[in-house]
Description:
Blueprint: E1 9-16, E2 24-28, H1 34-46, E3 48-56, H2 60-75, H3 82-89
Antiparallel strand pairs: 1-2, 1-3
Amino acid sequence: MALAIESDKVMFEIFREDASAGQYRVIYFTELDEHHREIEISEAMRGEHIFDGYLRNKSKQEGKRIVDAILERLNRGEKVSPTEIERELKPYMA
């Protein structure tokens, strides 16, 4: 029997639900369960892509806190460039 292997990274995407007025959200693709996978991926595909990448599994909780803070800023109307997002997440990315 094969053992389940935990991935060493978590794939994510930051997107805007509706390009004109939607909220900014994140989806962690590698953490989706079968039940929600299709729905969540479809939502992300319909939205406006902002940033994507991989968080290292060993520092993913810290990385997720940074992502949450970025989402809060975006949803308040602050302009956060992909370059700035990458700079803030760099220590946690794979």
